[in-house]
């Protein structure tokens, strides 16, 4: 157990004097430090790291990082920078410090003085650091502080090992190294495995077994060697020398095997990436021909549809010339003419129907009434008159008869319904074709863009790259196989030599005691190895399940659109079905974090988006702390970057519920939604706000109240929705969700 | 149909007129030349005579008075080429219109010259209405759509009245 009670930072870069008392309340373990980007967040993290690890904890070349306040002008008197971390352990930590059963308080105090110096070269800084000092004080039962006997380096390395720094002081961007690096930083797979495996072994206590077994094994060899020496048998000594030589070669081969295994892991990963890329490319190439065919079909269809549409439109245009339509517009006239002419038709006036009959009367010479018409008579004259008049009116009457006929015919169309129906059909045909053409055009655009995506040259490159990787992989495999064979042979040789030596030695009474030691040691090694294997197996399985559970709760209720990143080619949280930790094939001491999709395919880190990697790394860190029962602070920066919506809320909640002493640096936008505020209200035992006094001064002042010294960052006790004289920003006074903290304490 | 009607329009082919002042506007909605039907949506009328007939029907449906005055002063003759049976139907319709408008008492009601003159005056009366409708097409509505829609609305009007 390790709990931070207080962190004090004095004259460190932008901090004059800052004190943080993180919550140590197990019911409200969360400490929230609200800090905008650029307000000194990273510097705070650096100060803590420097306090813990000294120069090693700072970025850049040794000595290049300026620890002193920016406002300080180098002078000969110098200025002292100091970080003090007060923490408490219960003596049951990984290192059983002195085996003390009760809680012990320590103060880790690191200080350095920066003084002016004349730069000898142009780019050299005009300051240097002197009197760097680190002290570990331990509180005695009487309350006094005395220096710890082991010294700072050893205790810190035991309590907060540098290689586990991400478990205590975590920049979430760096923690992503456990899963192949953050978005902008790809790291080699064997480095990832190394880092992960170390963390697992160290925190699960596996390395203790490992190193103990290793120590006993070497003891055993010493006993054996001494036993041989004790026989004073020249032949035996020669065999022993031979055995040492064989063992030496075995070591070499083991080392090479490990190197090759790492190499193989890296190559494997690159190959998987290359194959994935090629698969995507070839998949689209295969689709290429199909696409071309579809394009041709599409062109044909479009042409046909356009022709059909043209003729449908022509039909529609012809409808404008149809006499039915014209007649329906003239319905009044048509009906009127029908009514006018029908009686004339009925009484025989139109057309002139009696003329042929009357003419025939003249030809036959007898009238219907029986009178003779052959000679001139009144009657005959009358008949002739009728014939003449009728002949004269014939054209006129015939015309009117035709008009009546036409009016009767067209009168049937007077309501125009037939025409309207037909026109409707024609219009519909045009509309249907319009839609078809529209769809065809859309399809063609889709096909075009798909065709554009395929890059033939890239396929060739991918093929070449894969070929090369496959070659080097088979070379590594050949080496591994031959090394494994050699190892087997050497192990046989070694066993045989050991047997020979043992048999020869058995003759010698003096060697017997040593031999018994050796046998005991051999047995112990075996016991340790078995125990190691079992514990490892169980703990890793537990860790694996824990990671998956944590990941699941952080990724719960997630929608893809909540991912801030807009990267279509990367797997999002929703696509990840299972995560965990698995041992590497053919080794028992190396582990790798994995993420499988729903089809059980393991996705390399390069396929996973930033938010998912971050959450994966966090589920590893939290899971490992939980499984190893490590009670320790987690100072984390940028934990919620790249997350939003329910992922952000889940991540904050899971961290608050899982980590023992989470100290989170969060930005205002991390704390925008009510969900996050609720979580802070529920879990936070301490809240702070960090304000950079130089911020936004030029842009009209987001910081309302400024101190004289604009180069410092100030810390106040304000929570996420509070403000005071130190941290007030524009708009907060008008925002009814924010409250002003009444007592305006002096800034710390 | 008798030869009488089929010859009506042909016989007076030089007598078909539309208002001279609307000549440019009219030509915008008529196919550029015979058989050109590539652009039917913006030029919905295949020939001038089809536009002419549509104007006559419009004038009747809207009960417009035939345009008066000397035709030679405002009319512009257009060239007419007979296309067959459709035009015989049109000729019959014109003869019907003449009977309805001139009446049986005037013996001139059956004369081609009188029938066509009446038709010309009616066409001139309907022409501005048709052009107004075509020129005020809403966006995305083609002159063809607009002409068809106009025909429908006139149909309803004429049928309701009769
Ligand atoms: Zn008689
Ligand atoms: Zn404040």
How many structurally independent domains of chain B?
Answer: 1
| Order of strands across the main sheet of chain A | 2-1-4-5-6-7
**What is the overall pLDDT average of chain B?**
84
Mean pLDDT of chain A: 80
Rounded to the nearest angstrom, the distance between the terminal CA atoms of chain B is 26 Å
What count of helical segments of chain A does DSSP give? 17
Backbone CA Rg of chain B: 15 Å
Give the helix tally of chain B: 7
Tell me, what's the shape of chain A?
A: elongated
CATH architecture of one domain in chain A: 3-Layer(aba) Sandwich
CATH topology of one domain in chain A: Rossmann fold
Order of helices and strands of chain B: HEHHHEHHH
Low-confidence stretches of chain A: 93-100, 561-566
Number of beta-strand segments of chain A: 16
Biggest interface reads: A-B, 44 and 44 residues
Helix content of chain A: 40-55%
Dominant shape of chain B: globular
Strand content of chain B: under 5%
Largest sheet of chain A: 6 strands, antiparallel
According to CATH, the homologous superfamily of one domain in chain A is P-loop containing nucleotide triphosphate hydrolases
Account of the 3D structure:
The complex is a heterodimer of chains A (748) and B (162). Chain A is α/β, with parallel strands linked by helices. Among the domains of chain A are: 1-160 and 669-748, Rossmann fold (3-Layer(aba) Sandwich); 290-452, no CATH class. Chain A is 53% helix and 15% strand. Chain A has 17 helices and 16 strands. Chain A has a 6-stranded antiparallel beta sheet with strand order 2-1-4-5-6-7, covered by helices on one side. In chain A, a hairpin with a 7-residue loop joins β9 and β10. In chain A, α7 packs antiparallel against α12 (417-453) and α10 (355-364) runs antiparallel to α11 (378-411). Chain A is elongated, with a radius of gyration of 49 Å. Chain A starts with a strand and ends in an 8-residue tail after the last strand. Chain B has one domain. Chain B has helices at residues 3-11, 23-27, 48-61, 71-74, 85-102, 112-135, 143-161; strands at residues 17-19, 75-77. Chain A binds chain B through residues 310, 313-314, 316-323, 325-337, 340-341, 395-396, 398-400, 402-403, 406-407, 409-410, 414-416, 419-420, 423, 427, and chain B through 1-2, 4-5, 37-38, 40-41, 44-46, 50, 53-54, 56-58, 60-61, 86, 89-90, 92-93, 95-97, 99-101, 104, 107, 110, 144, 147-148, 151-152, 154-155, 158-159, 161-162. The structure holds zinc ion (2 copies). The site of one zinc ion has 5 residues of chain A, from loops.
């Amino acid at each position: 157990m390790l709990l931070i009670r207080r962190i004090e930072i004095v004259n460190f870069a932008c901090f004059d004097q800052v004190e943080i008392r993180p919550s140590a309340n197990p019911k409200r373990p969360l400490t929230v430090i609200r800090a905008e980007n650029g307000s000194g967040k990273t510097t705070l993290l650096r100060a803590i790291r420097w306090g813990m690890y000294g120069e090693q904890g700072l970025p850049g070349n040794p000595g290049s990082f300026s620890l002193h306040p920016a406002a300080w002008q180098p002078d000969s008197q110098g200025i002292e920078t100091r970080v003090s971390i007060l923490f408490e352990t219960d003596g049951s930590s990984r290192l059983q410090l002195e085996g003390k059963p009760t809680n012990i308080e320590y103060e880790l105090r690191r200080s350095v003085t920066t003084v002016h110096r004349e730069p000898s070269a142009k780019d050299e800084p005009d300051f240097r650091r002197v009197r760097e000092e680190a002290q570990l004080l331990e509180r005695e039962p009487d309350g006094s502080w005395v220096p710890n006997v082991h010294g700072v380096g050893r205790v810190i390395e035991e309590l907060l090992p540098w290689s586990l720094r991400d478990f205590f002081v975590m920049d979430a961007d760096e923690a992503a190294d456990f899963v192949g690096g953050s978005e902008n930083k790809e790291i080699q797979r064997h480095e990832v495995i190394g880092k992960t495996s170390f963390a697992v072994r160290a925190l699960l206590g596996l390395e203790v077994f490992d190193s103990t077994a290793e120590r006993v094994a070497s003891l055993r060899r010493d006993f054996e060697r001494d036993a041989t020496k004790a026989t004073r048998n020249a032949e035996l000594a020669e065999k022993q020398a031979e055995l040492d030589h064989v063992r030496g070669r075995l070591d070499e081969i083991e080392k090479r095997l490990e190197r090759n295994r790492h190499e193989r892991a890296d190559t494997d990963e690159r190959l998987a990436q290359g194959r994935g890329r090629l698969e995507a490319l070839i998949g689209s190439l295969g689709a290429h021909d199909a696409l071309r065919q579809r394009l041709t079909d599409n062109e044909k269809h479009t042409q046909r549809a356009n022709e059909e549409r043209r003729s449908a439109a022509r039909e529609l245009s012809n409808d404008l010339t149809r006499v039915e339509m014209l007649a329906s517009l003239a319905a009044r006239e048509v009906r009127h003419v029908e009514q006018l002419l029908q009686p004339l038709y009925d009484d025989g006036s139109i057309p002139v129907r009696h003329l042929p009959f009357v003419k025939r009367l003249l030809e036959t010479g007898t009238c219907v009434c029986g009178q003779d018409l052959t000679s001139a008579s009144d009657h005959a004259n009358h008949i002739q008159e009728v014939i003449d008049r009728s002949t004269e009116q014939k054209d006129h009457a015939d015309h009117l008869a035709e008009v009546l006929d036409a009016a009767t015919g067209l009168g049937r169309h007077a309501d125009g319904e037939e025409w309207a129906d037909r026109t409707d059909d024609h219009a519909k045909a045009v509309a249907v074709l319009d839609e078809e053409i529209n769809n065809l055009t859309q399809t063609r655009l889709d096909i075009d863009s798909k065709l554009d995506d395929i890059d033939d040259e890239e396929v060739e490159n991918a093929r070449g790259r894969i070929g090369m990787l496959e070659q080097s992989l088979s070379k590594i495999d050949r080496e591994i196989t031959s090394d494994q064979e050699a190892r087997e042979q050497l192990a046989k040789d070694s066993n045989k030599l050991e047997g020979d030596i043992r048999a020869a030695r058995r003759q010698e009474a003096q060697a017997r005691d040593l031999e018994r030691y050796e046998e005991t040691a051999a047995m112990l090694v075996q016991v340790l190895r078995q125990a190691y294997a079992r514990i490892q197996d169980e703990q890793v399985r537990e860790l694996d399940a824990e990671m998956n559970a944590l990941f699941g709760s952080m990724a719960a209720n997630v929608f893809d659109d909540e991912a801030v990143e807009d990267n279509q080619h990367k797997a999002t949280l929703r696509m990840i079905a299972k995560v965990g930790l698995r041992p590497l094939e053919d080794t028992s001491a190396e582990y790798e974090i994995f993420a499988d999709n729903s089809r059980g395919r393991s996705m390399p880190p390069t396929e996973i988006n930033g938010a998912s990697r971050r959450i994966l790394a966090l589920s590893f860190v939290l899971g490992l702390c939980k499984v190893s029962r490590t009670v320790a602070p987690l100072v984390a920066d940028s934990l919620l970057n790249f997350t939003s919506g329910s992922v952000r809320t889940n991540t904050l909640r899971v961290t608050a519920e899982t980590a023992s002493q989470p100290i989170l640096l969060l930005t205002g936008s991390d704390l925008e939604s009510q969900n996050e505020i609720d979580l802070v209200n529920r879990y936070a035992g301490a809240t702070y706000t960090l304000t950079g006094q130089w911020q936004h001064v030029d842009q009209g002042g987001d910081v309302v109240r400024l101190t004289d010294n604009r180069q410092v960052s100030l810390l106040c006790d304000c929570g996420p929705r509070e403000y005071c004289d130190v941290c007030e920003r524009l708009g907060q006074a008008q925002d009814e969700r924010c409250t002003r903290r009444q007592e305006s304490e002096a800034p710390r | 149909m008798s030869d009488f009607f089929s010859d009506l329009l042909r016989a007076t082919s030089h007598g078909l007129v539309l208002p001279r002042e609307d000549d440019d506007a009219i030509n915008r909605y008529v196919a550029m030349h015979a058989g050109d039907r590539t652009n039917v949506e913006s030029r919905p009328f295949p020939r001038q005579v089809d536009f002419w007939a549509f104007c006559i029907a419009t004038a009747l449906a809207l009960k417009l008075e035939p345009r008066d005055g000397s035709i030679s002063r405002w009319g512009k003759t257009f060239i007419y080429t007979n296309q067959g049976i459709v035009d015989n139907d049109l000729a019959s319709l014109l003869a019907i219109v003449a009977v309805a408008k001139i009446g049986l008492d005037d013996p001139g009601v059956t004369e081609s010259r009188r029938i066509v003159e009446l038709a010309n005056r009616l066409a001139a009366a309907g022409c501005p209405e048709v052009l107004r409708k075509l020129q005020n097409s809403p966006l995305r509505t083609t002159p063809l759509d607009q002409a068809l829609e106009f025909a429908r609305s006139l149909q309803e009007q004429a049928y309701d009245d009769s």
